């Protein structure tokens, strides 16, 4: 049973008169035990991992603050909204999608919020006021919220391409201390193939670099940093996630009030094509850009990308909190364990991703990563095993970790020439 709000065109709500819903004929999908129908909406099963991350931090936020009001401005079939409602136990979820054909489908999926869970004995009137559906332009919805001072704990903007129009309004419609979940699928800008598009959409001039997929995350965060600064706010990433299908770049940001932009984590990345060394540069050091390698300098041998985010991609404490909650929910049991809603494969992937995010959060790691095959190519040696190489780097006092973006790479503050030297002393077998 759905609920139709009679007071406005195109607005459906759980807080009004009940009307029967038209049936949507579609095979039922399931994520982590939550069933839903897709209908004519776009749905990608591979993105369920990113939805897992969003649900976990939403639940952690509710535990920490006692409040979770969610605005999902590009809902599609509503799988994210339903999971926020049922799994993160959101107090209220507003699901919006501009497509008129999805309204009944959204209502059908969100009506699961009226069902009794295993521990509930009764449903009060407030349980029927936990969700709302609209079919408005996402940009308009966000601006209206800011104008009415109707702020949310978490705003999910699942956009595609290089559409950053909603980034600023989303930051303006979230509570101080709240979360904004941003998405981009602009692999061409991340790869430096559309530099002027990147400049207009993200405020960064992006040159081709060998860690393009990390650039995709950093330019998206950098865009949010710039938008927040114009509103006397700051944003810092709770976690950032790259997925190869698409590609898809996602980041969950914490929004705080601050009157001045602190630019230590907002700057430029410099890369030397001759030696393969990259470094982070502050605004104050732009006039001193150079590479200290012994190779003769040629025009274009040193390239600069930015301004963008050059700080940590994740908040270690928050990711550890997400990990603990995922373990409590049985989402990351040991491989081989299985619950009704979790396959061993899903559990292993989520567990490994959270572990790598914690590794990537260690202090001292710069932007970018070094692919193992590049070390072998530049040093003219067989490629060392990644794990052995990371152990060797840490023994030498360098920060080093895996990369969740590129499994054949390491993140380290060790200079490239030292990486090559250490590569000679590591176990020389080809990485699989």
Short descriptors:
single chain, about 425 residues, alpha+beta, Rossmann fold, three-stranded antiparallel β-sheet, globular, disordered C terminus, tRNA binding, tRNA (guanine(26)-N(2))-dimethyltransferase
Q: How much is the average pLDDT?
A: 86
* Oligomer type: single chain
Count of DSSP H/I helices: 13
Q: Specify the helix fraction band.
A: 25-40%
Highest CATH level, the class of the largest domain? Alpha Beta
The neighbouring-strand order within the major sheet is 2-8-7-6-9-10-12-11
Structural class comes to alpha+beta
Main β sheet profile: 8 strands, mixed
CATH homologous superfamily title of the largest domain: Vaccinia Virus protein VP39
> What's the CATH topology name of the largest domain?
Rossmann fold
Principal-axes geometry comes out as globular
């Amino acid at each position: 049973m759905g609920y139709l709000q009679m007071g406005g065109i195109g607005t459906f709500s759980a807080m009004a008169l009940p009307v029967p819903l038209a049936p949507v004929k579609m095979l039922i999908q399931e994520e982590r035990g939550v069933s839903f129908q897709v209908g004519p909406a776009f749905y990608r099963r591979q993105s369920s991992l990113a939805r897992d991350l969003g649900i976990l931090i939403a639940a952690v936020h509710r535990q920490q603050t006692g409040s979770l009001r969610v605005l999902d401005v590009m809902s599609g079939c509503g799988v994210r909204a339903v999971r926020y409602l049922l799994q993160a136990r959101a107090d209220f979820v507003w699901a919006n999608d501009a497509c008129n054909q999805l309204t009944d489908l959204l209502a059908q999926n969100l009506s699961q919020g009226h069902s009794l869970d295993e521990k509930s004995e009764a449903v009060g009137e407030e349980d029927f006021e936990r969700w709302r559906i609209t079919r408005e332009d996402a940009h308009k919805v966000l601006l209206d919220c800011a104008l009415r001072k109707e702020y949310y704990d978490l705003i999910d903007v699942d956009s595609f391409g290089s559409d950053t129009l909603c980034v600023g309004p989303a930051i303006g419609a979230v509570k101080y201390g709240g979360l904004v979940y941003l998405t981009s699928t602009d692999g061409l800008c991340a790869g430096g193939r559309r530099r002027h598009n990147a400049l207009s959409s993200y405020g960064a001039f992006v040159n081709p670099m060998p860690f393009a997929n990390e650039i995709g995350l950093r330019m998206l965060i950098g865009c949010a940093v710039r938008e927040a600064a114009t509103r006397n706010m700051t944003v810092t990433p709770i976690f950032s996630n790259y997925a190869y299908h698409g590609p898809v770049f996602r980041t969950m940001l914490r929004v705080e009030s601050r009157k001045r932009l602190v630019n230590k984590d907002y700057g430029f990345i410099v890369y030397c094509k001759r030696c393969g060394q990259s470094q982070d540069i502050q605004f104050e050091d732009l006039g001193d850009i150079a590479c200290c390698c012994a190779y003769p300098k040629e025009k274009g041998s040193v390239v600069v990308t930015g301004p963008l985010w050059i700080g940590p991609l994740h908040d270690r404490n928050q990711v550890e909190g997400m990990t603990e909650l995922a373990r409590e929910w049985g989402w990351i049991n040991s491989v081989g364990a299985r619950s009704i809603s979790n396959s061993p494969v899903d559990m292993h992937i989520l567990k490994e991703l959270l572990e790598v995010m914690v590794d990537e959060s260690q202090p001292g790691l710069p932007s970018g990563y070094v692919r193992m095959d590049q070390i072998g190519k530049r040093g003219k040696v067989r490629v060392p095993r990644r794990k052995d190489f990371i152990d060797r780097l840490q023994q030498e006092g360098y920060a080093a970790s895996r990369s969740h973006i590129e499994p054949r790479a390491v993140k380290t503050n060790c200079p490239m020439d030292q990486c090559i030297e250490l590569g000679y002393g590591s176990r020389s077998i080809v990485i699989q």
